[in-house]
Amino acid sequence: MIERFFCALFGHKYVVQMVFSSTSRKLGCSRCSREWGMHDPTRSLVAWDKELEDMHKLLGQWPLKEKGE
Predict the structure, then answer these.
(1) What phi and psi, each to the nearest 5 degrees, are found at residue 27?
(2) Residue among 22, 11, 24, 29 at smallest CA distance from 52
(3) Domain parsing of the chain, residue ranges
(4) Over the stretch 25-39, which tens digit does the pLDDT of each residue have?
């Protein structure tokens, strides 16, 4: 809970979690654990949800699962 307060005051600590293409990736905050989808051409950052994840899987941009998963 305190992490969200710090992010609200000082901004998120963004880290790239996954790269889907040269212009699309999944970002997360190492402090509060929130996640976003980022699209460079439109300069968009949207909250990550199941619908966005399903879209990347449908487009074949999701990493293949390791054996045993």
Answers:
(1) -110, 155
(2) 24
(3) 10-58
(4) 999 999 999 999 999
